[in-house]
């Protein structure tokens, strides 16, 4: 076997370019599936913290689904009535005694256009800008670094106050205390009363590039008819979660004026539903990558068979000499089969390496945990070995079956 391996690697080294091009097909197929699976595995590993932006024991009502809508269902959601601030406040009254933390929030449409300024300093366009109440911190896992949070009076009296993220502080107030200063956002002026503690990034986007104002002020300044209010509700405990959600759904239907036979005209989601929705998306992406890789590997396998048949033809006289001096049929078959497997597995190993680097690179950009897909890597090696055996068997058998006398006469 040692001699066979040496001869296999030696024959592959004679035609380096041909061997490289043949391995490339396997590399591309394995790279595509390993790259996607690595990225998906990394994202799944951080999904609990990445998508758990509602806080513990929380559920949310909104006009639109959490992950947006596609073209086929867009009309259905656009036809829905907006959730108004009045409806949200009535909902709070219904839930009094059942839930103490109810966060109201609405965000500016077209976030890429939002820009803030102070004096000669300006932020880049793309600031997250919206309105909320005093429970935004609890519902979205923020903390106040300096200053204070909104109070119920700030919301009730429609005060022009603002809470800003650390990135806004760095851009607008690089050398002074932002508290008490007046900044402009969407051409409106607000007094800074608090600064969020830094949160960093989530899936490649900064959570510190944010400005929040009282929701009553937000809707007054930019038009209540333009925005739908999202309502996040926290259950007092995990054991009361289902009962609180059922009461919340009932309260929401009442404030929306729905009759018993009518379907809900609002969306309900929680951390669990967000995680499940992401898992479905990940499964679709993984399935697509698997199909594409299977096609690429099939084409690569055909390429390996073609190259091995060419190799058998080119080395017919060599095979005849080896058989004439006593090489058995199994030895010839093993030699060519090993060459086929070496081509396939080498290409697969390179694909695994490149796929892991690419997948973890994407995970790093999205601030997800770096992982190595041991299961998929092992599966890749097994599949590449099988491809080498399956697609190399016929050329190897053809080589082993050559008549030594005919082979020796071959020119």
Whole-number mean pLDDT: 85
SSE succession = HHHEHHEEEEHEHEHEEEEEHEHEHHHHH
**Distance between the amino and carboxyl termini:** 29 Å
Tally of extended strands?
Answer: 14
Strand proportion, as a percent range, falls in 5-15%
Low-confidence blocks of residues:
none
Rg for CA atoms = 32 Å
Write down the overall geometry: elongated
Total number of helical segments?
A: 15
Profile the largest sheet.
Answer: 12 strands, mixed
- Overall domain count: 2
Helix content: 40-55%
Judged by helices, strands and strand pairing, the structural class is alpha+beta
How does this model look, in words?
This protein is of the alpha+beta class and 411 residues long. The chain folds into two domains: 2-48 and 277-408, no CATH class; 81-265, no CATH class. It contains 15 helices and 14 strands. Strands 1, 2, 3, 4, 5, 6, 7, 8, 9, 12, 13 and 14 form a twelve-stranded mixed beta sheet that branches. A two-stranded antiparallel sheet has the order 10-11. Helix 2 packs antiparallel against helix 11 and helix 2 (16-45) runs antiparallel to helix 14 (374-400). It is elongated, with a radius of gyration of 32 Å.
């Amino acid at each position: 076997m040692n001699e066979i391996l040496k001869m296999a690697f030696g024959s592959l080294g004679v035609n380096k370019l041909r061997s490289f091009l043949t391995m490339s097909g396997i590399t591309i197929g394995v790279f595509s599936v390993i790259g996607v699976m690595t990225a998906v595995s990394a994202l799944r590993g951080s999904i609990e913290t990445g998508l758990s932006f509602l806080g513990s024991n929380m559920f949310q009502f909104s006009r639109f689904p959490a992950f947006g809508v596609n073209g086929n269902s867009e009309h259905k959601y656009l036809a829905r009535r907006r959730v108004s601030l009045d409806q949200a406040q009535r909902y709070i009254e219904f839930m009094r005694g059942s839930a103490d933390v109810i966060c109201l929030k609405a965000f500016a449409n077209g976030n890429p256009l939002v820009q803030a300024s102070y004096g000669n300093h300006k932020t880049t366009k793309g600031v997250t800008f919206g309105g909320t109440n005093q429970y935004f911190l609890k519902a979205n896992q923020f903390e106040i670094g300096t200053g204070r949070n909104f109070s119920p009076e700030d919301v009730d009296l429609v005060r022009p106050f603002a809470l800003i993220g650390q990135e806004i502080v760095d851009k607008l107030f690089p050398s002074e205390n932002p508290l008490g200063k007046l900044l402009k956002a969407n051409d409106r002026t607000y007094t800074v009363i608090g600064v969020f503690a830094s949160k960093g990034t989530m899936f490649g986007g900064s959570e510190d590039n944010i400005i929040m104002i009282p929701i009553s002020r937000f809707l007054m300044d930019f038009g209540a008819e333009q925005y739908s209010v999202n309502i996040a509700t926290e259950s007092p405990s995990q054991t009361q979660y289902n009962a609180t959600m059922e009461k919340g759904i009932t309260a929401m239907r009442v404030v929306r004026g729905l009759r018993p036979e009518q379907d809900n005209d609002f969306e309900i989601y929680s951390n669990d539903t967000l995680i499940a929705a992401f898992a479905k998306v990940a499964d679709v992406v993984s399935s697509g990558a698997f199909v594409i890789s299977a096609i690429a590997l099939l084409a690569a396998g055909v390429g390996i068979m073609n190259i091995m048949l060419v190799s058998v033809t080119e080395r017919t006289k060599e095979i005849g000499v080896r058989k004439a001096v006593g090489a058995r049929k199994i030895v010839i078959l093993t030699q060519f089969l090993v060459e086929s497997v070496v081509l396939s597995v080498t290409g697969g190993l390179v694909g695994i390496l490149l796929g892991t680097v690419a997948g973890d690179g994407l995970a790093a950009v999205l601030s997800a945990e770096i992982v190595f897909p041991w299961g998929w890597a092992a599966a890749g090696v097994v599949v590449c070995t099988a491809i080498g055996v399956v697609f190399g068997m016929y050329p190897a058998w053809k080589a082993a079956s050559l008549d030594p006398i005919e082979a020796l006469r071959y020119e």
